[in-house]
UniProtKB/TrEMBL annotation, chain A:
UniProt name for this protein: Peptide ABC transporter substrate-binding protein
Lineage summary: Bacteria, Pseudomonadati, Pseudomonadota, Alphaproteobacteria, Rhodospirillales
Main location as per UniProt: periplasm
Pfam family of the protein (one): SBP_bac_5
Organism: Thalassospira povalilytica
Keywords: Signal, Transport
Subcellular location: Periplasm
Family designation: Belongs to the bacterial solute-binding protein 5 family.
Domain of life: Bacteria
Residue intervals of the Solute-binding protein family domain: 88-456
TrEMBL record, chain B:
UniProt-recorded name of the protein: Oligopeptide ABC transporter permease OppB
Gene3D superfamilies per record: MetI-like
Native organism: Thalassospira povalilytica
Family affiliation: Belongs to the binding-protein-dependent transport system permease family.
PROSITE patterns assigned to the protein according to its UniProt record, in alphabetical order: ABC_TM1
Lineage: Bacteria, Pseudomonadati, Pseudomonadota, Alphaproteobacteria, Rhodospirillales
GO cellular component: plasma membrane
Keywords assigned by UniProt, alphabetized: Cell membrane, Membrane, Transmembrane, Transmembrane helix, Transport
UniProtKB/TrEMBL annotation, chain C:
Transmembrane segments: 38-59, 103-128, 140-158, 164-183, 222-247, 267-290
Family: Belongs to the binding-protein-dependent transport system permease family. OppBC subfamily.
Organism of this sequence: Thalassospira povalilytica
InterPro entries in the cross-refs: BP-dependent_transpt_permease, MetI-like, MetI-like_sf, OppC_N
Protein name per its UniProtKB record: Oligopeptide transport system permease protein OppC
Domain ABC transmembrane type-1: 101-290
Domain of life: Bacteria
Membrane association type: Multi-pass membrane protein
Locations listed in the record: Cell inner membrane; Cell membrane
Keywords: Cell inner membrane, Cell membrane, Membrane, Peptide transport, Protein transport, Transmembrane, Transmembrane helix, Transport
Amino acid sequence: MSENTKTAKGLVNGLLKSSRAFVLGTALIAGSMTMLSSTHAQAEKILRIGNDGEPQSMDPHFISTIQTSRISDDMSLGLLTYGPDGQPVAGAAESWTVSEDGMTYTFKIRDHNWSDGTPVTAQDFIAGWERLLDPELGAEYASLLYIIEGAEAVNTGKEGAKLGVKAIDDHTLEVKLTAPAPYFLAQLTHQTAFAIPRHVVEKYGKDWVKPEHIVVNGAYKLVEWLPNVHTKLVKNEEFYDAANVPIDEVIYYTYEDRTAMQNRFRADELDVARDIASEQISWLRDNLADSLRIAPYAGIYYYAIRTDKDKFKDVRVRKALSLAINREAITDAVLKTGELPAYSFVPPGTGNYTEPAYVSWKGLPYAEKLAEAKKLMAEAGYGPDNPLKFTLRYNTSENHKRIAIAAQNMWKQIGVEAELFNSEGKIHYADLKVGDFEVARAGWIADYNDAQNFLFLAEERTGPLNYSAFDNPRYNELMLAAEKEGDLKKRSDLMHQAEAIMMEAQPYIPIYYYVSKQLVSPKIKGWIDNAPDRHLTRWLDIAE
Amino acid sequence: MLSYAIRRLLIAIPTLFIVITVAFFMMRIAPGGPFDQERALPPEIEKNIKAAYDLDKPLIEQYAIYIGKLFQGDFGPSIKIRDFSVAELIMAGAPASMQLGLSAIAIALVFGVGFGTYAALRQNSAVDFAVMGVAMIGIAIPNFVMAPLLSLVFGLYLSILPTAGWGDGEIQYKILPIIALALPQIAYIARLTRGSMVEVLHSNYIRTARAKGLRETLVVNRHAIKGALLPVVSYLGPATAAVMTGSVVIESIFGVPGIGTYFIKAALNRDYPLVMGVVIVYAVMIIMLNFLVDMVYGLLDPKLKSR
Amino acid sequence: MMNKSEKTAMLEAAGAPAEIEGRSLWRDARIRLFRNKAAVGSMIILGIITLLAIFAPLLSPYAYDQIDWGYIQEGPNWENGHIFGTDGNGRDLFIRVLYGARVSLAVGLLATSVSLAIGVTYGAVAGYFGGKVDNIMMRFVDVLYSLPFMFFVIMLMVVFGRNIFLIFVALGAVEWLTMARIVRGQTLSLRRREFIEAAHATGVSNFKIIFRHIIPNVLGPVIVYMTLTIPQVILTESFLSFLGLGVQEPLTSWGVLISEGAKVIEASTWMLIYPALFLALTLFCFNFIGDGLRDALDPKDR
């Protein structure tokens, strides 16, 4: 035998040996470490949260997912901030005044410090907003601040554009708006409106958010971010209200797999799981009832109909499609997770709004809705020999699939043949944006608690986000008028009229209002279910 | 042998370059972009962001920029995990993936070859059927079933291991992911070993060896195993590359800080620089391991010192 | 057994595994295959599964896309006829598993055949010619390995549109790579063997050598790897469905059913167990048939 073969044998034997040793070692250690598991120090209060998505950035200006803003909300204090019940309360601003016309706000900034001891000033807020709106930064959410005078011009790079904000002194900030927006204060809780520590950003550039550099004005500061695993925050002793912050450390574990997150919660390796595995809802209700939290959430799940396609120009067809959807069956039999059937586009309880404008046929029994739908389809010229055929698109997800299957079945009853077509999210939304679909699943979660934030989706000027290409002149007029209206009651009426038009025309078929679903250990104190679904760690405590 | 090795290493460079080029254009021509999402961006904002990432330039120019930066060792920023560069993300994740992957492959090799040989020596016996039956079950159960099962059984029902997590990288967090990674590989390797071992044992050089009265263990260890390992070694190249670069399923179920997640997530997010980053890592692994495999062929079969 | 060994010994003693007439080779193989009990039993079971899949609509009071609103995600129940229970939409799982068999068996067989045809030919050619040809062909394989599968699939979808046959092409076109590497490895070692060199010396064409001498002699590992490819393609199909290229609802496949079941392992075990059982059973059958085929076709055993 040659040299080579000997080496080969040596190699194989070597591999065998080392692996055997490894396995033995593994078994030994496995045996001994079971005793070590899950006893962490009692002295410190550590909150372990399962977060259903990897954070994008610790820089408030680069945040666009809710999973990231949960972390950012713990670290930064906006002029206003979310209270324990999710409602806006005084944050970095201790008080404010509003001008008569509702267009000028003056904030008195609280005397407080960044986590490195430097005072937070009005200029820090202006610097934050200017940075957000700088076209070169490319912030996804810059348009949320367009309500500030000059903001849109600055962000679109217009010559000589100037932001309508002014630091009267270090602790006084004046802001001018383009319209008397009643939701402006609520918007200031959002990460787009946070201040930035100018002195740190200037020094480290884009690396200012690294754990070793980052400086914050909120209750917690970042100490570690291990991608795909966790983000660890510890209490910021410089926080103005640090004395009333009971929890010392909060760890956000990234978990995109809901079942895995749920299992960790069950094994007491997590205190909170920010989403549940909905497919297992019946099991959860039976086994984890004391931890399961389901609460209304400011969002709408809907099917968009492309109204500029010939098939769907006829309002009778759109209305029939909407009538035939048995929303109660979807929420109660298919989803079973407490969602409410939707007969309006704006969820009930949305801010600065009365009761939403429901579809006129909301109260009919399902059989009558079906009969009406059949009648409308016949009137529109469809029948057994000439069925309406189209493709229903949805992005891949277990729930979207189940709802689409149910819808397809329901439409069959009125002689409509819908073909199902799922695609991964990017392709789905790329096609929605350019209107390359017939009927498609979509959803909207409010950026701020105001009806306008839902209704603008059907305005012509909204552009690509108006997925249905709905263009109703009266609707557009009403929404414009509402924007200029300073009187809350009148503004609400105008929007109500607009929604009534939308509900009659059904460019969007509302299916259900979202709920937030999570698991919260009973030993967590201070967790109050709320529609914005904001639960800042500073308000929470862990019972011993 | 040496000159062949050198030639192989030289050809690796154009191979890698072709991979990068094809992957770049394939990824960019595919529909959907990083900013197509539930909340479509206003056109003016999308314009700003695209400019910030040079995505508004002609594709050819973007390619030139990318290649230029790559030559300076710059893999670019991640679009979705903005606080990290692609290089940082890969450096942070690669050790965990490689460690789990190597352990799993080593375990799989030991058990796979062992079981396979054992079954082959007792071909068509009850032992053979039992071992191969278990192996087939291992192959039939996909990792997205096996991983949650392991986590449930050992983490929740028996509570002897953490259901998931990484801690500070202690061994107890690694056991289940390694097992989950190794099981299907054990099954594959056992199947392949058994198949070729059966064949080799029937071949006439083994018969001759037996006829000469050599002891059975000697026949197997010295003669049969070399021939039988050939298909296993061929399989091992790509399999090791795949296992060592992590698995999205295992990582997301066990919360492993690896890079396997990026292969799917970066693609789904259209995080172009990150996709390119992991493609390059994978390509390097494939090229290297297939090179190693070809070297091992030479060792297993001296006749192969061909070129 | 004795007979065979003697025969082989004689043939091999004669210097080369003689070229056997195609007809007798196949007849011989068939006879030996049908003598293998495990293989025959497996063929019968597979036949039954196939028949069940074909005649599925006659076997259940429920249609595969029919929602039974009274029984959504409920366990097996003989009284209401949902013998395998229902899925998350209240559809009968029994009939869905049978419909899934249609897609999965087709994917498994067709994609595997595609990968077999490409992989074996490619690997044998590369290994036989060796040198530069081999080097370039194998680097091409490295390139294909490295390209991101997901974008490959999306590109196919863009170019050809959504088409169920694309699944087979896409999967077959990816799965042949390892097959090619295995075949090439075996061929490299074969081509130095006396009988190949003898054939070469007597002027047999390369084409003939590859298809008459090389390929029959690498069939062992090829068949084993083929039986490993089948479950791979069946399960990978569910990822294609995830991307939107696989089967579209309300049609389904075992891969899709199993991935749905995996999400409810504890809560609704039946949704995982039944499709998984069918898949496992099928794989066992393919496995035994593969082993039987290998034994029947083994040129050394002839």
